[in-house]
From TrEMBL:
It is a multi-pass membrane protein. Residues 545-585 are annotated as: Disordered. It comes from Undibacterium umbellatum. PANTHER family: SIALIC ACID TRAP TRANSPORTER PERMEASE PROTEIN SIAT-RELATED, SLL1103 PROTEIN. Its main location: membrane. It comes from the Bacteria. This is TRAP transporter large permease subunit. It is found in: Cell inner membrane. Residues 12-287, 326-520 form the TRAP C4-dicarboxylate transport system permease DctM subunit domain. Keywords: Cell inner membrane, Cell membrane, Membrane, Transmembrane, Transmembrane helix, Transport.
């Protein structure tokens, strides 16, 4: 008979074995979870009724999870913006703006990568688009090929950290414990500090390299700069202003509390379609008139809302009528522009491709989530949470030792696993331990135990997000390197792509150390002295009709209680009864 304490490491080892064989991760998780679930029932670690938690959590925490609806919206938004020409215009204008200085093209790639990361949220689209546009130009003007490939790959992975990153949405969904959780808004607020510091590190590295190796990063010749003065600034603003508006629609509305993550993602998807229409060559005078009318109606609605609406008194009838008219004008303009997107053949094909890529990614995420749910329920049923907590709480060095070991563990896992797989498999196991170890570190700065617990999860999640950026940059398995290899000309060697990525991986690891040592970068914008809502998972509550049952059964971090483990079937009156309970608030 296999002892209970051997089951968690055997489950983890079996999962690694499945993935090394090359079996898809979603089905590996499902197969290992069901196999060890049946084995645990046979060995008496829990009974068949315990597996009711699997379908309950699939329907209650995966298929009915409103937060996960933000993923297809952000993916669709990135797919549309990938092909609408925004990246090309911004790289051209920024390249000419920074071109006169050494390393100017590198600065433009980093800055444009940061801006695009805040409106696309997908690494593949960003790396491919920027490489196709900037790689030939940088090679033409004599940039070192290793620096060129490295900066293009690194600037594409910036989108993993810059809100509205899909990684942050997934981590917010997985960073839940019994007492606290990390919501998407807090994850976005916490990620801004590290995002800006990382951009500063990339720019500083480019600056130092341009001084040490000036021939590696030459200035663009004057005759190659076609725009100057006011015309150049106007072209820069034509790319920056629409991007800023879209960023506010997605992030500003959510951070101000106007919209939920799903609603802000929907607005971003709609804004991406409108932006694609505005940039299309078939955008005519009537379209411009509809767009300007929509802007005027939106401005009028904002003015009425600011000056005539008050919480203490009801809006007057004339102001209410004017507000309704303004909103009708906005809706008509939106309907007109969306209809134009359907009627323009190129845009219709682009939207169709966006739907297809969004469907593929969403289906992949849902299947991995279903597999990880099955694995997690069985893993907790054999006291896997206790096993993980015992391993990490017994590490030397306190919270510093914990973060060092976890980050090294994630760094090496990223050689073989995608960030989705790491988030769904590893993060739920580590979240309760991270809250227990890191919350005391933040207690003084956050003001209350509840706020410290939530901030600890946000700090831990953002740190893992910075670390998981390297999963796209690791030679030889980094997906960003594969994307770059696919669009690079034949004269660019694969060895140059791999060697060029190493300095930027080093910069990303320096960023991990900075976030670990200075948590204020993450927690500075978070609410002090308030707790975040607890997970909305459905709860399985067990009541045992025993007169001397004074000890409550153990409660897991995913709000699922484990039935009493006994190899023998209890009598009829002692059978556990499962009841659905409302989510805890």
């Amino acid at each position: 008979m296999i002892p209970l304490e051997y089951m968690p490491p055997l489950m983890f080892g079996g999962l690694v074995l499945f993935m090394l064989v090359g079996f898809p991760v979603a089905f590996s998780l499902l197969a290992v979870g069901l196999s060890f679930g049946l084995l645990s029932i046979e060995l008496g670690f829990f009974n068949v009724a315990f597996l009711q938690a699997v379908p309950q959590r699939i329907f209650g925490s995966v298929l009915a999870n409103d937060l996960l609806l933000a993923i297809p919206f952000f993916t669709f938004m990135g797919a549309i913006l990938e092909k609408c020409g925004l990246a090309e215009d911004m790289l051209d204008s920024m390249g000419q703006l920074f071109g006169p200085i050494r390393g100017g093209l590198g600065y433009s790639v980093i800055i444009v990568g940061f801006i695009l990361g805040a409106i696309t949220g997908t690494v593949a689209a960003q790396v491919i688009a920027m490489a196709m546009i900037s790689l030939p130009v940088m090679m033409r003007y004599g940039y070192n090929i290793r620096y060129t490939t490295g900066v293009l790959a690194a600037s594409g992975t910036i989108t993993q950290l810059v809100p509205p990153s899909l990684v942050l949405v997934v981590l917010a969904d997985q960073l839940k414990t019994q007492t606290s959780s990390a919501d998407v808004g807090s994850m976005y607020l916490g990620a801004w500090g590290p995002s800006l510091v990382q951009i500063a590190l990339f720019i500083l590295y480019t600056f130092i390299l341009s001084r040490i190796k000036p021939d590696w990063l030459p200035a663009v010749p004057k005759e190659a700069r076609t725009l100057q003065g006011r015309a150049l600034w106007m072209k820069c603003l034509q790319g920056i202003i629409p991007s800023a508006v879209l960023i506010f629609m997605v992030l500003g509305t959510m951070m101000l509390g106007i919209a939920t993550p799903t609603e802000s993602g929907a607005m971003g998807a709609l804004g991406a379609i409108i932006l694609a229409v505005l940039r299309d060559k078939e955008f005519n005078k009537r379209d411009k008139l509809a767009f300007r009318a929509g802007l005027a109606g939106l401005g009028a609605a904002l003015i009425i809302g600011l000056f005539f609406y008050s919480d203490t008194q009801e809006i007057s009838k004339p102001a209410k009528l004017a507000l309704q008219i303004a909103l009708v004008v906005v809706y008509v303009a939106i309907v007109w522009l969306v209809t134009r997107a359907y009627r323009i053949a190129d845009l219709r094909a682009l939207i169709t491709l966006g739907y297809q890529s969004t469907m593929r990614l969403t289906a992949m995420v849902v299947f991995i989530l279903i597999g990880s749910t099955c694995f997690s329920v069985v893993f907790q049923g054999v006291d896997g949470g206790v096993w993980v907590e015992h391993i990490f709480t017994s590490l030397p060095g306190g919270w510093i030792g914990f973060l060092l070991i976890v980050n090294l563990f994630i760094f090496f896992l990223a050689f073989f696993l995608d960030f989705f797989e790491i988030a769904f498999i590893v993060v739920p196991m580590l979240a309760p331990v991270a809250e227990k170890i890191l919350a005391p570190v933040l207690l003084e700065s956050m003001g209350s135990p509840q706020a410290a617990s939530s901030a600890a999860l946000v700090w831990f999640g953002v740190m893992l997000c910075v670390n998981m950026q390297t999963s796209f940059m690791h030679p030889p398995f980094g997906f960003a390197l594969f994307y770059l290899r696919g669009v690079a000309p034949k004269e660019v060697k694969s060895s140059d792509i791999y060697w060029g990525a190493l300095p930027w991986v080093g910069l990303q690891m320096i960023m991990v150390v900075l976030v670990m040592c200075f948590p204020v970068m993450v927690t500075a914008l978070l609410d002090k002295g308030s707790n975040k809502p607890v997970s909305d998972n459905l709860v399985i509550e067990k009541t045992i009709n025993e007169p001397d049952a004074d000890v409550k059964p153990p409660v897991f971090s995913d709000n699922t209680e484990k039935p009493a483990s006994t190899p023998d079937t209890p009598p009829e009156e002692e059978q556990p009864k499962f009841q659905f309970q409302e989510p805890q608030k």
